[in-house]
Amino acid sequence: MLAWIRNLDPTSAFLDLDDGACEPTLYLIPEGDSEAGTDKLLDSCFAAIFEQELESWCLDRTAWPEPRTLRLFRDWFELTFYDLVEDLADEELCDESASLIDQQQTLDVRQPSERQPLRLVQGFGGS
Question: How far is Cα 75 from Cα 1, in angstroms, rounded to an integer?
């Protein structure tokens, strides 16, 4: 991913995705039962996450990599799954922005040096 970003903007040659400047993105995704279930789940939602991440770097969709496969997604992003997230806010949960993914599991998608950090949370029981 880093090579793609640098190709888009040569002034980003100094960019290092491991230096803490790029915070991971946290996504709530549907709950999975096992590691195999997580793979199946990721297969169903990676495209939306991939597009969201690409859009955060480049609005010109014609500059996006093709094809955007699950393999490329896994190559570009380091994923960390979390089974639990705690909501400490007093307000009830609501979907004000029609989020990418409805039911909740969190996945941390991280990019060590070449890959963008992301986090996915799994098993969140809010509605």
Answer: 8
Cβ-Cβ contacts under 8 Å for 51 (sequence gap 6 or more): 64, 68
pTM reported for the whole predicted model: 0.69
Neighbours of 29 (CB within 10 A): 27
How many whole angstroms separate alpha carbon 49 and alpha carbon 108? 11
Query: What single-letter amino acid sits at 57?
Result: W
- Compute how many other C-beta atoms are within 10 angstroms of the C-beta atom of residue 112: 9
CA dihedral over 27, 33, 39, 45, signed as positive or negative: negative
Tokens standing for residue 45? 């939602």
Delimit the domains of the chain by residue range.
2-17+24-84+100-124
* Nearest residue to 82 via CA among 104, 108, 103: 108
pLDDT per residue over 16-42, tens digit each?
766 555 677 888 887 766 556 677 788
Task: Calculate the alpha carbon distances from 73 to 2, 11, 20, 52, 103 in Å.
Answer: 13, 24, 21, 12, 21
